Amino acid sequence: MREALRREIISSLEIQARVDELGRQITHDYQGRQLVLLGVLNGAFVFAADLCRAIALDLEIDFIRVASYGTASKSSGKIRLLKEPSIELTGKDVLLVEDIVDTGTTMAWMLEHFGQSGADTVRICTLIDKTERRRVPVTAAYIGFSLDQGFLVGYGLDYGEKYRNLPAIYTLQVE
Ligand code: IMP
Ligand code: MG
Fold it and tell me: Which of 76, 100, 109 most suits a substitution to test ligand 1, by most atoms within 8 Å of the C-beta?
């Protein structure tokens, strides 16, 4: 990997404030429902950890893992579930927690997959909605930040498995 240049675009304080807002909104919307947060590994582990603590409901949380064949910065569209949730989803309200929706391929596949799980509702909460490369029309019910382009790292987002631990979000310019 060559030298990469990064520039902060969303500060850790901005992320915190937005995650708290999303948490309040979700708390309001899922009153009296059986909320299950399904974090998508690895990218969403940081976001899911903060988001679940901003929601004041008796929720359940689990993680799933998908494999999409592609390069470090682009997914290919072929998707497979590597880890199923261990929680029963029948009759529950599933909220898929994702770090970023880019082409939409991954989320479209998951909506379809978990749509057949017996869950009452299946919706998406994404930290970042990146619209420029959208190929499959998916709409997230909850969006942290909307951006049209750029390759982002930090707060769970990686480039070749690096930078996930950065507390803010950065654009990465790869030479
Ligand atoms: P999609 O299927 O194209 O929507 O891709 C979603 C997945 O691609 C995300 O879960 C990320 O793992 C990865 N991805 C897409 N854009 C970025 C980015 O800007 N930074 C880091 N990962 C990204
Ligand atoms: Mg990734």
Answer: 100
pLDDT digits (tens, 9 = 90+) for 81-111: 999 999 999 999 999 999 999 999 999 999 9
Q: What number does the ligand 1 atom closest to the CA of 136 have? A: 4
Protein residues with C-beta less than 5 angstroms from the ion ligand 2: 43
The residue range of the domain holding 50 is 3-174
Total structural domains within the chain: 1
Work out the mean pLDDT of the chain and round it to a whole number: 93
Pocket of ligand 1 (CB under 6 A): 43, 75, 98-107, 130, 151-153, 157-158
User: What is the per-residue burial (b if ≥16 Cβ within 10 Å, else e) of 10-22?
Assistant: beeeebeebbeeb
Confirm if 138 and 123 have CB atoms less than 8 A apart: no
Distance between CA atoms of 123 and 141, rounded to whole angstroms? 6
pTM higher than the cut 0.90: yes
Express as a percent the part of the chain with pLDDT over 70.
92
Most informative mutation of 7, 102, 113, 169 for ligand 1 (most atoms within 8 A of CB): 102
CATH code for the domain in which residue 127 is found: 3.40.50.2020
**Residue 130 to residue 150: CA distance in whole angstroms:** 8
- Whether the per-residue pLDDT at 75 is higher than 80: the answer is no
